[in-house]
């Protein structure tokens, strides 16, 4: 696909994420959207970096457990700190629905023979699960590690339940799913938070916060492993990293979880 044919004046959530992580595969519209986001919720950059760090921690742990097949959903750009850099011998399928992100992503992994990048929307999971890439890299062995990192906030509750259920039905027993949940006190909001949510709605990617209880319920029928649902700062042994100000007056908390079938 020719990037010149795509309207790069419209910001993309994945490219905003790339800019927030210090990446270079973004456009002026993405940078402006990110800076506006930072002006509304200054802690955003810190939370985004924590999400990426959790992904790295979870991938490394699963690699140590023997997982060598990864299906990563809503991957964003697979830059030098993504799963294939942590587990260079793993077979990995990255996905994203943004065509510019996919075009750049395919370029970034073109020299990795065991990595593929698929343009697909997580809302149409069957297009991913029945992709030729799945048969090519995974074959009939569907005991896989599935990533849903920084993604649950972009789905309504019913959609999220359907995604967890469909992945559970597809994966073989023993598979694991690592994911994150962005939570806040449902009774609290601020004008700036409402502007933040409005910005994502305008980008075509509405943003939803859950409560810890909702996120655990919606992840069924996957089972949460013992001590494997907790704030990301606990996963990373960085309990003092997040301050009261970082919670933006609404008790923000980002949880990481490893689930098992």
Mean pLDDT, rounded to whole units?
92
Which second-level CATH architecture applies? 3-Layer(aba) Sandwich
* Helix/strand order: HHHEHEHEHHEHEHHEHE
Which secondary-structure class do the elements indicate? alpha/beta
User: How many structural domains are formed by the residues?
Assistant: 1
Report the CATH C-level class: Alpha Beta
The count of strands amounts to 7
Strand content: 15-25%
Question: Looking at CATH, which topology would you report?
Answer: Rossmann fold
Distance between the termini: 37 Å
Morphology call: globular
Proportion of helical residues: 40-55%
- What is the assigned CATH homologous superfamily? Vaccinia Virus protein VP39
Biggest sheet statistics: 7 strands, mixed
Lateral strand order in the biggest sheet = 3-2-1-4-5-7-6
> How many helices in DSSP terms?
11
What assembly state would you assign to the polypeptide chains in this entry?
single chain
Low-confidence parts lasting 5 or more residues at pLDDT below 50?
Answer: none
Instruction: State Rg.
Output: 18 Å
């Amino acid at each position: 696909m020719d990037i010149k044919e795509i309207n790069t004046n419209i910001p993309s959530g994945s490219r905003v994420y790339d800019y927030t992580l210090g990446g270079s595969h973004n456009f002026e519209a993405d940078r402006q959207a990110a800076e506006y986001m930072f002006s509304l919720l200054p802690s955003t950059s810190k939370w985004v970096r924590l999400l990426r760090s959790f992904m790295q921690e979870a991938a490394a742990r699963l690699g140590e457990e023997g997982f060598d097949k990864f299906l990563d959903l809503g991957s964003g750009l697979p830059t030098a700190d993504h799963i294939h850099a942590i587990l260079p011998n793993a077979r990995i399928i990255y996905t994203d629905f943004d065509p510019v992100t996919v075009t750049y992503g395919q370029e970034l992994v073109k020299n990795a023979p065991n990595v593929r990048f698929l343009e697909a929307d997580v809302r149409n999971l069957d297009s991913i699960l029945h992709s030729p890439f799945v048969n090519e890299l995974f074959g009939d062995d569907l005991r896989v590690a599935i990533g849903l990192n920084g993604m649950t906030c972009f789905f309504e509750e019913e959609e999220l339940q359907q995604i967890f259920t469909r992945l559970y039905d597809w994966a073989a027993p023993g598979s694991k799913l690592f994911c994150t949940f962005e939570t806040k006190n449902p009774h609290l909001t601020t004008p700036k938070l409402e502007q933040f949510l409005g910005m994502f709605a305008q980008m075509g990617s509405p943003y939803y916060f859950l409560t810890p209880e909702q996120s655990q319920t919606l992840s069924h029928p996957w089972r949460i492993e013992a001590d494997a649902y907790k704030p990301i700062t606990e996963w990373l042994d960085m309990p003092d990293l997040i301050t009261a100000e970082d919670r933006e007056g609404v008790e923000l908390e980002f949880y990481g979880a490893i689930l098992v079938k």
